[in-house]
Amino acid sequence: MKSYKRRQKEHDENVNKVVKRLKERNPSKDGLVCTARKPWIAVGMRNVDYKRARHFEVDLSAFRNILDIDKERMIAKVEPLVNMGQITRATVPMNLSLAVVAELDDLTVGGLINGYGIEGSSHLYGLFSDTVVAYEIILADGQVVRATKDNEYSDLFYAIPWSQGTLGLLISAEIKLIPIKEYMRLTYKPVKGTLKDIAQAYMDSFAPRDGDQDNPAKVPDFVEGMIYTPYEGVMMTGRYASKEEAKEKGNVINSVGWWFKPWFYQHAQTALKRGEFVEYIPTREYYHRHTRCLYWEGKLILPFADQWWFRFLLGWIMPPKVSLLKATQGDAIRNYYHEMHVIQDLLVPLYKVGDALEWVHREMEIYPLWLCPHRLFKLPVKTMVYPEPGFEYQLHQGDTPYAQMYTDIGVYYAPGPVFRGEVFDGAEAVRRLESWLIENHGFQPQYAVSELSEKNFWRMFDAGLYESCRKRYGAVGTFMSVYYKSKKGRKTEKEVQEAEQAHLEAAYAESD
């Protein structure tokens, strides 16, 4: 109920509190700076064990407001703890939206910027961080700066994505808005054949073979694919539609957000029997279509929760909060999720999606699989995540001279060998996955459990710009390095100190 002016005033007051808190830190006595957020609140599946070591806490819990929605500039200014559900509630009634809206309600702006965020519109706009036009950052010395792509902090602007909050404290972001309509006209198209056939059908659903990738008539607003077996999948393409169009005689409107409705991935699966069909979904409900069942993870959490009687009587309690699940799970469940269960995303060049699907089937045998394309832009500087060198000289399907088309393959579920009672070494499977990604210029989002060594981490990601900004803006000795923060397992204070010392050595950034 507060006005934007009041929210901005409170924001400035909270910034001053954080600056004051940072200046109270004694580098020789206090540990490295961490946010005061409890480890179990993070949505990612890796254990936030770095906070077990001595650290200096800075409370950012007050930064959870939308500060402004500027319809003229088409910019939303938001604080880092604003989540996707919160911002779509504010913008969709205005027929506006962020260019990229991550599917799950609880995902926050700060997590999507410092980590990884994608949606079915990413084949047009890139990852979530690609839609940001300015960051407000508190540096290690307490200085507050605004970084854009063309001001004096442009290096910081390009280094922030994927940095996991290890360059400074993000306190607000200005994010691109786009005009939208009330409904999504969604086409479900079943595909049958080999994994290579499914991969080609997926590419054809949004990437014209003639290379006309910027033609709105040929490229849909939203793209998503789900593979249910090694021989069956459903490709979905969406276009924004007006209320008048959706309500025309003969059109089917499906409000998928109601608690008693079938889970979205199961509803889409009906296309395998029904054949191709079209329906209209209210736009905000479409954005959050996977929230209620957490893609298909809800089936493992509550095996009966997809039954009609449960949905009708108790479907309103879904989904359980990821933070609640993490807060209440014991070591046995934690170990199960790390060893007998996979939650990983493979970011690979689009033309290699068929090879990646065959690799996942051979090594993990997990279904369903989620497919979502995204552009990886050619930027003025080399960031942690970057396209294949020279891709613009040999364009593949979906590529343009200014961006290489990648795809996210979401691998979320228990592997086939586990269901059959066979031996499955989850840690070893992830190590093989990471090696395959490095060999094929792929990337692994850092929210997932990783087995990467420090050397291999910097083979997967580029360290140049990140290291430069760490030193230029005083992050070394104040914030943890991104590898250390992402590292699996518990950390001791001695490990923290050793990691920071290694951060100053050239060998830390050893490349391929």
From TrEMBL:
Membrane topology: Single-pass membrane protein
Compartment list: Membrane
UniProt record, GO biological process: steroid metabolic process
Pfam families given in the database record: FAD_binding_4
Its EC number(s): 1.3.1.72
Alphabetized Gene3D superfamilies for the sequence: 3.30.465.10
Keyword terms, alphabetized: Membrane, Oxidoreductase, Transmembrane, Transmembrane helix
Domain FAD-binding PCMH-type, first and last residues per copy: 1-180
GO molecular function: Delta24-sterol reductase activity; FAD binding
InterPro entries given in the database record: Diminuto-like, FAD-bd_PCMH, FAD-bd_PCMH-like_sf, FAD-bd_PCMH_sub2, Oxid_FAD_bind_N
Protein name from the UniProt record: Delta(24)-sterol reductase
Organism name: Erythroxylum novogranatense
